[in-house]
Design brief:
alpha/beta, Rossmann fold, five-stranded mixed beta sheet, 28 strands
Length: 962
């Protein structure tokens, strides 16, 4: 690296002032360079000296006033009070804080800017008033004439907003009076702010000569964009021979008037006529032919991942390095991506990206819903967020109990009284506020509880303590202001709190002279490093395309010498270019992906350099690697040891029952059978964003049972006409049943949530379809059995390790009936209701009676029929499947691809074949030579919780090929 700017300053100071610097004041724009200059002075002198006095520019100017510095929030409340007093004098209705807040920030910002740049308040606001009035009064002009007038005032369109314009005309006229009242308020309270001090010094109300008198010389180092107050005072002090100015600049952009990076220093030197204490500005950038490494990443956060590899390769001992965040939102992903090297973070860790803010934001979001929407319930997502935040420290037992309660009832919204978090450090988190006066005290209490909890845990991290304390300070300031205002809505208070705490950050301690420095571009003023890594160098970010909100249109700002967007661009350009003067390792990163927040283009400053300079750009485009997961062995569970002992104890000795569902689970995936029925690994309770199909099936089964139960066991046949009459009862029955399933009392459709209403609609259509189908296709019916899950258990003999054993199988009988067809034929049926994608058609019986069965509904229905026939002696049951979506077209009786119906002799033969298949399958389940493995041909549903275990399942042909 060439001799850095501050090293040159240190050398010049020694040459000018020798060893006694006690009467020298050194002023910077910010604190960071002070540490670096002290180091350079120590290196330059090599021995102890009398130290100069160091200040930031605001600290130095504040020496001129004894008044107390007033906070931004206090200024806001003053402005609100004074504005309403003026409205009262004018005979207008006073504004609420909610109405005034959006414009208050803009007014204060404009007042401050006008002070800094010494603009006459009366002049600029009256000119704004006049140009605005022209815009209103000349609406009859032609479009071309209106376009001409608009260039003087572009804040509002000409057509359709006369009421708003009139209101702002009154505001423009009132603002000079408000400005004077505001300044008088500060005087009365013996308070001040920085813009006031600047104007008072420049206007002579404060003694600028007395300010510099105690010092032999004041050295202003590294200043770039001066406001008019600074320019006037600096020129005055230079003429009094009290000030020296050290400008960090390069001839490359200073002497070329087309280069925006040199805009302000050209003004300082050539217009304000401030002299550069370092003499002629060198031309370093113009003569450099070094490399600039330009990295195009595939995504915003990917820049930090890419930087990790670059740092590992480039960081060497003895070199100074800095990561400069053009996009400061990259700080947290950057911290998560850094290699194991020493770092110091200047930017500070933002509250908004800390777990503490997560708790505060959740509390505010919850109470916004309660207040604004008058809710007595809270969404399950908000409860889950609370339960899973580590700072809440709720016990595992209470968390699990609450999650199970929510999951079992599928509660998308939970009543406050049902939310129990007593073991948490924030047990009253969800308690509704009694009044708007409780907002800030409750939040402060919440912060106190977090502070106590963190302190008890271990030694509290300094960063967390700082964030909590700074947040409390801001809340206390807001509380003082709110106390003077009669009534503020909870919604507005929360909105203002959000804005007030958003800028809070906590410094992360480190050594500013050692290790990798992390800072924003603005904080890097005056500093130089061997290696720089600039993150977020995208067009639209470097420079930014937006400016601060203002009521002063661009034409007026330009006329009065106020900052405009071009000034912001010039400052950004300077902050970027100055690092090219000294750094040898230059690495620039940008996001090359086009999305809603990125143009996908590098900054125009980079393109400009590439076109004009002699730098050699080395471009690297990040390629996302195609990741092949490491080859893992297929998961296979042998039936040995504890697994076999458990299976024997459970099924062979303990006679645990095997259902039709367990059988088809095994056919589709033996590994899933192991998880569900042997290891008994259950899904944790959860809320589904779609209603569960098994709940829909339960509702339909139970409603059908309710309708048909009065007819069970009757000797005589009942006409199916009664089923048509039952259709009118279906909707009410389904509402009651959905309520029972979710543990809620419901009698009306409006009491169900949105997904439950969808379930109601589908269940209603299904049940009505079943009833109408029976009424249309049969004359009469007789119910033999209905929804019995207890009485149909059967001992079934199988061979286990060459020895005959018995297992118990059982069937849940949905419905067994006898029906009389239109032709007078009597049929005995076993009926199964299905709500999924099941079908009555199959291609071949061989594919049904096989692993990964093609029709599990047929397997299950034959299973039920077999158990029922064996237990009751009733024979010749025909298997019927009620699938509402297909039953009108395809009927309910299973049939093969060639039209063979499951009835008569064909059915009898298939029933015999099924018993053989059942025995072979059960014997395979208990065959110790056959491990539990997943069938890779089986269809896996997205909702399957065991998917992770199937990913390495190997197809049979793959094994052969290997």
């Amino acid at each position: 690296m060439n001799t850095s700017f501050l090293a040159l300053v240190a050398q010049d100071i020694k040459q000018r002032f020798g060893t006694d610097l006690s009467e020298i004041a050194i002023v910077f724009n910010n604190k960071r360079p002070i540490t670096y200059l002290k180091k350079h002075l120590a290196d330059t002198y090599g021995h102890a000296i009398w130290s100069p006095q160091f200040y930031t520019i605001q600290e130095f100017f504040s020496l001129a006033s004894d008044a107390e510095q007033v906070s931004q929030l206090t200024q806001f409340f003053y402005l609100y009070e004074l504005h309403n007093e003026l409205l009262a004098k004018e005979g207008h209705e006073q504004e609420t804080l909610e109405e005034f807040y959006p414009i208050a920030e803009i007014i204060l910002s404009d007042f401050g800017q006008l002070d800094y740049d010494l603009v006459n308040i009366e002049d600029i606001y009256m000119e704004l008033y006049d140009t605005s009035k022209i815009d209103i009064e000349f609406q009859h002009l032609t479009k071309e004439q209106q376009d001409f007038i608009r260039q003087f005032w572009q804040s509002f369109s000409i057509a359709g907003h006369t009421g708003i314009q009139e209101r702002f005309l009154k505001l423009w006229k009132r603002l000079p009076v408000l400005y004077r009242a505001f300044k008088q308020k500060l005087v009365d309270q013996k308070q001040t702010n920085y813009p006031t001090i600047y104007r008072q010094l420049a206007d002579g109300e404060l003694d600028s000569t007395a300010l510099v008198q105690p010092f032999k010389k004041i050295l202003f180092i590294g200043f770039n964009a001066l406001n008019n107050a600074e320019a006037k005072l600096f020129k005055q002090w230079q003429e009094q021979e009290k000030a020296l100015f050290y400008f960090d600049a390069d001839a490359y952009y200073l002497e070329d008037k087309q280069q925006e990076a040199g805009l302000f220093i050209r003004r300082n030197i050539f217009q304000t006529e401030l002299q550069n204490a370092l003499g002629e500005v060198p031309n370093i950038i113009g003569s450099r032919k070094d490399n600039i490494h330009l990295y195009a990443s595939t995504g915003k956060v990917s820049q930090t991942k890419l930087l990790h590899d670059v740092l590992v390769e480039n960081e060497k001992e003895g070199k100074s390095s800095a990561i400069l965040l053009a996009d400061e939102s990259l700080l947290v992903p950057l911290l998560q991506s850094l290699p194991n090297i020493k770092v110091n973070i200047t930017t500070g860790f933002p509250l908004t990206q800390s777990p503490i803010f997560g708790i505060l934001d959740l509390w505010m979001r919850v109470h916004e819903q309660i207040s604004h929407l008058k809710k007595t319930k809270i969404t399950y997502q908000d409860v889950e967020t609370f339960l899973n935040n580590p700072l809440t420290k709720i016990s595992f037992k209470e968390k699990s109990t609450l999650q199970k309660f929510i999951g079992d009832k599928q509660l998308f919204e939970i009543n406050f009284e049902d939310i129990c978090v007593q073991t948490s450090v924030l047990p009253h988190f969800f308690r509704p506020l009694n009044s708007s006066k409780e907002v800030i005290p409750t939040l402060i209490h919440l912060l106190d509880e977090l502070l106590i909890s963190l302190a008890q845990d271990t030694q509290i991290k300094q960063i967390d303590a700082n964030l909590l304390i700074e947040t409390k300070k801001v809340l206390n300031q807001l509380h003082l202001g709110f106390e003077k205002i009669p009534q503020l809505s909870i919604i507005f208070q929360i909105g203002l709190i959000r804005k007030a705490i958003a800028p809070i950050n906590s410094a992360i301690e480190g050594d500013p002279l050692d290790g990798l420095q992390i800072m924003g571009l603005l904080e890097s003023r005056c500093l130089n490093f061997d290696n720089i890594y600039i993150l977020g160098a995208n067009e639209g970010i470097l420079p930014k395309t937006s400016s601060a909100a203002t009521f002063l249109p661009n034409t007026l700002r330009r006329a009065y010498g106020l900052p405009i967007l071009e000034n912001q661009d010039a400052l950004s350009a300077y902050l970027f270019y100055r690092h090219l003067q000294y750094s040898t390792g230059i690495h620039v990163f940008y996001n090359s992906i086009v999305d809603e927040s990125s143009t996908g283009e590098e900054s125009r400053f980079v393109r400009q350099l590439e076109f004009e300079s002699n730098f050699n750009f080395i471009k690297q485009q990040q390629q996302q690697p195609i990741l092949f997961p490491p080859k893992e062995e297929e998961l296979s569970i042998p039936k040995t040891g504890q697994v076999w002992d458990y299976m024997r104890a459970k099924y062979l000795d303990g006679k645990a029952k095997i259902s039709a569902t367990a059988l088809t689970t095994y056919l589709l995936s033996p590994l899933q059978f192991f998880f569900k029925h042997v290891a008994e690994i259950k899904e944790p309770p959860r809320i589904s964003q779609e209603f569960e199909m098994n709940v829909l099936g339960t509702v339909i089964h139970n409603v059908m049972e309710t309708i048909l139960k009065p007819y069970k066991g009757l000797e005589e046949f009942t006409s199916t006409k009664v089923l048509r009459e039952k259709v009118e009862e279906v909707d009410a029955l389904i509402i009651l049943e959905i309520g029972r399933q979710y543990g809620i009392e419901t009698k009306e459709l409006k009491e169900l949530n949105s997904l439950q209403r969808i379930m109601h609609k589908i269940a209603s259509e299904y049940v009505k379809m079943y009833l109408e189908y029976d009424a249309e296709n049969y004359q009469s019916f007789r119910i033999i059995e209905l929804e019995n899950d207890e009485d149909y258990v059967l001992d079934f003999p199988i061979l286990v390790n060459g020895k005959e054993e018995t297992v118990q199988i059982y069937g849940i009988i949905d419905r067994v009936d006898e029906v009389v067809t239109d032709l007078g034929e009597v049929k005995k049926r076993i009926v199964d209701y299905k709500t999924g994608a099941d079908a009555v058609k199959f291609s071949s019986i061989e594919k049904v009676f096989a692993a990964n069965t093609e029709n599990k509904a047929l397997v299950q229905t034959l299973f039920y029929a077999y158990v029922f026939e064996q237990k009751t002696g009733i024979q010749n049951l025909e298997p019927n499947l009620y699938v509402a979506r297909k039953m009108r077209e395809e009927g309910t009786l299973f049939y093969g691809s060639r039209g063979a119906l499951m009835e008569g002799d064909f059915l009898a033969a298939q029933k015999d074949e099924f018993v053989n298949f059942l025995r072979a399958t059960l014997e395979e389940i208990f065959n110790t030579e056959v491990p539990f493995k997943h069938n890779p041909e089986a269809h896996i549903y997205d909702s399957d919780p065991y998917t992770l275990f199937y990913r390495n399942a190997i197809k049979q042909e793959d094994e052969v090929s290997e």
